[in-house]
Amino acid sequence: MTSPPARASALDLIGNTPIVLLEGASEAAGCEIWGKCEFANPGASVKDRAALWIVRDAEKRGELRPGGTVVEGTAGNTGIGIALVANALGYKCVIVMPDNQSQEKMATLRALGAELVTVPPTKFADPAHFVHTSRRIAEETENAIWANQFDNVANRRAHIESTAPEIWEQLEGRVDGFTCAVGTGGTLAGTGMGLREKDENVRIALTDPYGAALFNYYAHGELKAEGSSVAEGIGQGRITANLEGLEVDTQFRVSDEEGLQWVARLLREEGLCLGLSSGINVAGAVMLGRQLVAEGREDPRVATILCDTGFRYLSTLYNAEWLREKGLPVFDWLRSS
């Protein structure tokens, strides 16, 4: 077994995450389902990649100068990534997030030294939306940049240049399908585009939670949301700059209940404690795998993203009272609590 290489900088720990065969999902799909372990990044989520690329891009363009501040609106994970990158490079950061996100994310951001601003959740069209609030703060702060993860294509480029080639190399150049949910669109678009550069026949699929509009957009050409989801950091109601130019081959929609079934199975059967977005991604990967098998592809392989650690949701997904309040099934092992 080869040991991981020595790293010259803590920032070099971002990316090059392991990929793991998911036995239960593979059995359910009838083919190999692989999970990219993005919880192994220093900030414990896939968003570390976008954070690093966005900051480095701003430096390269001369917009972020020594002693500067990075401002961003986020559901939490991108903010955590930015806080770590900013600390490593000597910048300050201000993070704006909706006040309905997990307490663990808020506590983590404060612990990392970020200035945290919380706002009530609202529609994107509302000027008080967390994205617009973060933009205004950046404009009003001297020597500051707005990370703008939704429409900053440095986000997408992170996955074209790192996530996609890593998956391709790890799976020895045999990838038949890739799917994940969309928050900013950077992961799906970047990884999808990067894999298609390797093989134009890779099937790219959107996996959407309820309450998001992209399923209907790719299926019927209309941005229309139906239902709702408690998943944090995914679900989009518009075509962001990161999504522009992405061709999606197929699309799936997954309920919170089905996503939670996979969260439970991944923990109880495989020892992986993950968030709901990962459960939704795995559910979509199983659907994509079944589709490829039904079409007659020989021994197809599907990759997806295991977005972040479940330890970030101890007060929500792994809390029996919270699940009952949301009308969601309580994991068997929590029912006595």
UniProtKB/TrEMBL annotation:
InterPro entries: Cys_Synth/Cystath_Beta-Synth, P-phosphate_BS, TrpB-like_PALP, TrpB-like_PALP_sf. One of its GO terms (biological process) is cysteine biosynthetic process from serine. CDD domains: CBS_like (cd01561). Its cofactor is pyridoxal 5'-phosphate. Pfam families: PALP. One of its GO terms (molecular function) is transferase activity, transferring alkyl or aryl (other than methyl) groups. Keywords: Amino-acid biosynthesis, Pyridoxal phosphate, Transferase, Transit peptide. Residues 12-308 form the Tryptophan synthase beta chain-like PALP domain. Pathway: Amino-acid biosynthesis. SUPFAM superfamilies: Tryptophan synthase beta subunit-like PLP-dependent enzymes. PANTHER family: CYSTATHIONINE BETA-SYNTHASE (PTHR10314). NCBIfam families: PRK10717.1 (NF007989). This is Cysteine synthase.
